[in-house]
Amino acid sequence: MLEIKNLHANIDGKEILKGLSLEVRPGEIHAIMGPNGAGKSTLASVLTGHPSFEVTHGEVSFHGKDLLELAPEERANEGIFLSFQYPVEIPGVSMVNFMRTAINEQRKYRGQDPISATDFLRLMREKKELVEMDNKLTNRSVNEGFSGGEKKRNEIFQMAMLDPKLSILDETDSGLDIDALRIVANGVNKLKRPDNATIVITHYQRLLDYIVPDFVHVLYDGRIVKTGDKNLALELEEKGYDWIKQEVGSI
Amino acid sequence: MEKQYINLYKQYHETIKKHSSSLMNVSRDASFALFEKLGFPTTKLEKYKYTDLTDALSYDYGLNINRLDIPVNPYQVFKCDVPGIQSYLYFVLNDGFYPVNDKRNDELPESVIICSLREAAEKYPALVEKYYGKLTATKNDGLVAFNGAFAQDGFFMYVPENIQLDRPVQLINIMRSDVDFMANSHNLIILEKNAKAQLLVCDHTMDDVRFVTNRVTEVFVNEYATYEHYKLENTHNRTTNLSTLLIDQKASSIVLGNIMTLHNGVTRNTIEIGINGEHCETTLCGMVVGDKNQQVDNYTSIRHNKPNCHSTELFKYVLDDVSKGGFTGELYVARDAQKTQAYQTNKNILLNRTAKMRTKPQLEIYADDVKCSHGATIGQLDESAMFYMRQRGIPEKEARLLLMFAFTADVMEHIRIDALQDRMKMLVEKRLRGELSKCEGCVICQ
Ligand SMILES: Nc1ncnc2c1ncn2[C@@H]1O[C@H](COP(=O)(O)OP(=O)(O)OP(=O)(O)O)[C@@H](O)[C@H]1O
Ligand SMILES: [Mg+2]
After folding, report:
1. Residue B281 maps to a domain
2. What's the ipTM?
3. Tens of pLDDT along B354-400?
4. Is B386 inside a domain boundary?
């Protein structure tokens, strides 16, 4: 479904991704781990089309389409969803209006009519229950004044609403208390289907107890330097990244 | 520029006076003398440095000093499309009050007086004399002086003690002329103790000629009275709207002003509120959506002369193309106006590099036990919010629109007439989309 080949990307002339390759197939869960500043969020930004990043080399295809040719909104409507590491507050734009606009844009992209008011309300209710989100939050402006954990929960709520094919969760676990972590992870698992896939960016093995990955990758200095199964995460938790850095250095 | 008007006055002042009321004529010559001395304001004056009238005043305008009838019945041709707004409806056609002939106005409580200022001056001389010109008298201002010399009529509203109007009064200023035209009018609004009124003033243009309007409005809000003043400007881009709104607030009164410019040519609003009693509440808001070569300057002044009052000021501008905005927020707190709380905010979004905004807070605070704050920002749309929305599938154009609309939302929250708020939201959204946001019955050229 997603194929990244030898991806290089810059910000402000500084190269951050330095030849990254990755393949994700339907039904898979990939975890990406790696030290601070390695380029994990950059990968998420580049895949979703953030205008600050410049791709200098490499290819990305999504369901056979050249992803790099598409505008951010087109990528979203093709089914790519990013749960942001730092969700943005948008004062004055209500959650309800925001969600309705997003849903209808997606439907328009797919040649469908706008959603009816009753269907929309039902969908909202259903998905709020999935992540046990408080009604009060959806009545407010997007993320405005939300606590760190509430913002993360709101990201998964939006993911549930938009039903993406590929979800990228960028440190969705950070800032969540233990109960919230379980609720959010359960939500993600319930949304799991054989035809969609998830990339989980995290620093903590704990999340991977709930969302069990098929692959664990280590992203270091702009490249994926090691890939393993879920046991790699346990090993990283125990030993840190130094041994990986040494391995890379010795190549 | 001034010369032709000075000559006009010298030659025709008898005609001007003949078609006005003796009460308005009392100070006419003095106003003229002041205008002769001051002339039209220029950008050299501190108060007018964001208002450039050179171009607007370089044309020849007709004035209707003979008060010839304008052959149009606004009640028939004008359809205000604020759906669901139940209002008492009045028109000022160019610069004259149009005789009332609408059934809707039959339900106005009998003790409330709404008529032309000229008629009021004749029928209720004591009342008019007590208030007329009391706020303009101290203004050393070329436009106010010009108005004092040339205005012959205007809108008059009197709400007696304890009368609270159940629906808004709507005053529509319509400009109708086949040649370039200038209108001067003077409005007088009086709310007695514990009275309540909401006034919605709409400015419209019906013909595609150049217009200048120079309107002065004096408002007296007595003890415990509540007055809301909404102004919606939706005129074409060859219009110059000069307006002076002067409000006098007595103890425990509540005033809300909300001044919205959606479409215009050159606009100068001077709004001065004097808080002259304790425990007053004052809210002054405004919003500007400008593009092409529109110019809007809001000069505001809130003077806390008495203790224990609260004022909030909030102005927001969205400017595109080569439009220009100006905002001045003068805040004065007198030495014994202790326990004053005064907050001022002016936020602006420039959609490109060619649009210009100039903003100036001007605080003079002489009391020590006060809470005052002011803040002004000029910026662009929040790029991270834009990306966030696009990541959710919302196209760039739509995301921009949502952000701009959100930006103006808090000004619109300060519209306390539901139907008007809904209508404004729709007009603003259409305007931001670049569609015509005109009401039926007026011309807007793009
Ligand atoms: N706007 C920018 N200008 C310059 N450098 C940037 C910019 N944004 C990111 N970087 C740099 O790119 C590198 C990768 O950042 P990125 O956010 O992708 O790291 P990360 O792997 O997500 O780290 P973390 O685990 O801390 O979230 C960092 O060195 C960062 O400083
Ligand atoms: Mg990161």
Report:
1. yes
2. 0.96
3. 999 999 999 999 999 999 999 999 999 999 999 999 999 999 999 99
4. no
Residues in chain A: 251
Length in residues, chain B: 446
Residue B435 CA to residue B60 CA, distance in Å, equals 32
Atom 18 of ligand 1, residue of closest alpha carbon: A39
Residue ranges making up the domain that contains B353 = 2-380+415-432
Protein residues within 5 Å, CB atom, of ion ligand 2: A 40-41, 85
Tell me if B393 and A76 make a contact (CB, 8 A cut-off). yes
Is B358 a domain residue? yes
Residues 370-429 of B with CB under 8 A from A: 382-385, 387-396, 398-399, 402-403, 405-407, 409-410
* Residue spans of beta strands (DSSP E) within B192-333: 196-205, 211-221, 226-234, 239-249, 254-263, 266-275, 281-290, 295-304, 310-319, 324-333
Instruction: For residue range A136-156, list pLDDT tens digits in order.
Output: 888 899 999 999 989 999 999
Beginning with the edge strand found earlier in the chain, give each strand of the sheet holding B155-159 in spatial order.
Answer: B113-116, B155-159, B181-191, B211-221, B239-249, B266-275, B295-304, B324-333, B356-365
| Structure confidence at residue A251 as a pLDDT band (50, 70, 90) | low
Number of domains chain B is built from: 1
Q: Which residues contact A126 (CB under 8 A, 6 or more apart)?
A: none
Report the nearest-CA residue for atom 28 of ligand 1.
A37
Residue B404 counted as domain residue: no
pLDDT tens per residue, range A79-91: 999 999 999 999 9
Instruction: Return the pLDDT at A247.
Output: 82
- Please state whether the predicted TM-score (pTM) of the whole model is above 0.95: no
Contact A154, A141 (CB under 8 A): no
